[in-house]
Design brief:
With about 270 residues, the chain is an alpha/beta fold. The protein is about 45% helix and about 20% strand. It has helices at about 10-20, 45-55, 75, 95-105, 120-135, 150-155, 165-170, 175, 185-195, 215, 220-250, 260-265; strands at about 30-40, 60-65, 85-90, 105-115, 115-120, 140-145, 165, 200-205, 210. Helix 9 runs parallel beside helix 11 (about 220-250). The longest helix has about 35 residues, at about 220-250.
Length: about 270
């Protein structure tokens, strides 16, 4: 749904992606990486990642968007005086929060991180940034140790929240992202990557996990939240569109043998 209550159509989504272009009239960005973290009621978890990224030499700034938290998240964030804190109420969803962080970023590259990660180390941050900053890829995406089994078999988690990309690639998408469903941001970004034929590096985070929603809010509420995420993604592209997107992104991944990997995956399922 749009912020005004109207339904966001797939036609609007594709029009927004096709119309995306860098803003040539904007001020030049600083060289480096702006790290954006979006948080909603993450007081019990976000410290794990803040202690790693705040002051990390690979990051020029850390921007945390407090997306209408009702717990102690805001108080905790204020104990880190060097972060750039953006807060709003009420909660408006991850995609909207991401759009605010992207719009505020001052550096020419973006690192997007989820707030509920565990096991992240300074080396994890270096590994995610390195392929892009060394010019070996245009975009990097994490593959966590607890990504869904099918994603680990494919070698790509297409809805991973941990990414590095040039700011110009996403800066023009801010307004459109604010009209997307709450969990439509990753799918939207993927379409931009595909349109620009970005070279994608998959970074395997073998010791990093994200805390599942059922661990945060209980089994039933967690299951409903997971279903809502899937529903939002499907409302943007349709199930067939999501399959097409996965295959298109696999073609852009910088490793050999993606066709064999996909064939092996589907070979594990019996023919109908």
């Amino acid at each position: 749904m749009n912020l005004d209550g109207s339904r966001h159509t797939r036609a609007q989504f594709h029009e927004a992606v096709e119309g995306h272009a860098p803003d040539s009239g904007s001020e030049p960005d600083l060289r480096g990486v702006s790290c954006v973290v979006c948080a909603y009621n993450e007081a019990d978890r976000i410290k794990n990642i803040l202690d790693v990224i705040v002051g990390h030499p690979a990051l020029g700034e850390v921007i945390v968007v407090n997306d209408g938290s009702t717990d102690a998240t805001e108080t905790l964030l204020q104990s880190y005086p060097t972060i750039r804190l953006l807060s709003h109420t009420p909660n408006r969803g991850k995609t909207y929060a991401l759009s605010r962080g992207i719009a505020a970023a001052r550096y020419d590259h973006l690192m997007l991180l989820d707030a509920d990660l565990a096991g992240v180390t300074p080396a994890s941050i270096d590994a995610l940034a390195a392929p892009v900053m060394r010019g070996e890829a245009d975009v990097s995406i994490s593959l966590r140790s607890n990504s869904l089994w099918i994603y680990r078999q494919m070698g790509l988690d297409f809805v991973s929240g941990e990414r590095v990309a040039p700011k110009w690639l996403l800066a023009g998408a801010v307004e459109a992202m604010q009209r997307l469903p709450r969990w439509g941001g990753e799918v939207y970004m993927n379409e931009i990557f595909i349109r620009h034929a970005c070279r994608i590096a998959v970074v395997r985070w073998r010791r990093v996990i994200n805390v599942r929603k059922y661990q945060k809010v209980g089994a039933w509420r967690g299951a409903l939240a997971e279903l809502k995420m899937i529903s939002d993604a499907a409302s943007v592209l349709t199930p067939i569109g999501l399959l097409r997107q996965n295959l298109a992104m696999l073609k852009l991944v910088k490793h050999r043998g993606w066709r064999g990997r996909v064939k092996t995956l589907f070979a594990q399922f019996p023919a109908s």
